[in-house]
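SAMPLE LOG
Freezer: B-3
Tube label: C17
Construct: single chain, 130 aa
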Amino acid sequence: QVQLVESGGGLVQAGDSLRLSCAASGRTFSVYGTGWFRQAPGKEREFVAAISWSGLSTYYADSVKGRFTISRDNAKNTVYLQMNSLKPEDTAVYYCAAQLRGPAQLRGPAGTTQGGYDYWGQGTQVTVSS
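STRUCTURE (predicted):
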């Protein structure tokens, strides 16, 4: 079992920044990759970014590339999502998710769809006002 807890969400204005955190506990040694997804009201959950266990490989959705940065601190069992130049369309509940199957798959369906991940957090709300 792996438990994931997101934090860092909030209400900000367009152009502001936020840093989300995803703290993992339990069988963290079994985690190969970690991803961030988001779900806006009335829309499907969509992929945002993913990172391998080593942190050497990352992958981003086109909609956030250049604005968001995913990183990790394995000593703290935490993955971060630094979000800069936020836009109203970034408003959503943000979820982190863990892959327990290796090697980490960051691209393609295995890395960018919900079915590629084994554990999920409860989510943190990000609201960007215009």
